[in-house]
Specification:
This is Peroxisomal succinyl-coenzyme A thioesterase isoform X2. The protein has 222 residues and is an alpha+beta fold. It is built from 5 helices and 12 strands. The chain has 2 domains: 125 residues, Sandwich (Immunoglobulin-like), CATH 2.60.40; 38 residues, no CATH class. The strands form 3 sheets. Strands 2, 4, 5, 7, 8, 9 and 10 form a 7-stranded mixed sheet that branches. It is elongated and about 65 Å long.
Length: 222
């Protein structure tokens, strides 16, 4: 009798183990799936690493200080375009770009990789900065207020088209004209117009600067 009910249940689409009809049993995962869950490294090979753009010194530095620009997480031998831009105090925009190719490990170091073209070519680690050109013709890059920095925006684009590639990474870097702690003292004495920059942490130089400003009216009479 039990065999008869089991056979009828199978013909009608039921489950011999007593599960209701229309409910699919839970199938245990394949051994390879369970192994991948235990070891995430088996599935990470299919995930592409995101590109990262680094600038050293990080965040900020003086205008005449060299910087090191590098990109990590690219595909092996991937062609990319690096682009730099800034705006002066009047809003005029300056830009430069260069084409590069990552190495076999997906790394790009501008101190080792030559530019393949663009605003410059060859091994130029600081090329993205000295090659900045204005969008407006005959416009010069002039710093009028040395107490504020120029903010340089750096971008990594996929491929060798400076305006059409997909954006992969971006970073900002401040280029300062005064070291931290330096004081700027305007000097106005007679017809003399000058600016005195006093380094931090030096009381002697502060007093010397004050004496200099006191002596300037005497020297201006000569």
């Amino acid at each position: 009798m039990l065999h008869f009910h089991k056979e009828v249940s199978q013909r009608l689409g039921g489950r011999p183990n007593g599960q209701p009809m229309g409910v699919m049993p839970v199938v245990p995962p394949e051994p390879a799936t369970r192994e991948a869950e235990r070891d995430p490294r088996l599935v990470q090979v299919h995930i592409q690493m995101a590109a990262t753009l680094t600038v050293e010194p990080a965040g900020r530095c003086c205008w005449d200080e060299p910087v090191r620009i590098a990109v990590r997480g690219l595909a092996p031998e991937q062609p990319v375009t690096l682009r730099a831009s800034l705006r002066d105090e009047k809003g005029a925009r300056f830009r430069a770009h260069a084409r590069y190719r990552a190495d076999a490990a997906g790394h790009l170091d501008l101190a080792r990789a030559p530019a393949l073209g663009g605003s410059f070519a060859g091994l130029e680690p600081m090329g993205l900065l000295w090659a900045l050109e204005p969008d407006r013709p005959f416009w010069r890059l002039v710093k009028r207020d040395v107490q504020t920095p120029f903010v340089v925006e750096l971008e990594v684009l996929d491929g060798h088209e400076p305006d059409g590639g997909r954006l992969l990474a971006r970073a900002e870097h401040e280029r300062h004209f005064m070291s931290p702690g330096v004081r700027r003292v305007p000097v106005r004495a007679g017809r003399v117009r000058a600016t005195l920059f006093l380094p931090p942490g030096s009381h002697f130089l502060d007093q010397a600067g004050l004496k200099l400003m006191n002596l300037l009216p005497l020297s201006s009479k000569c």
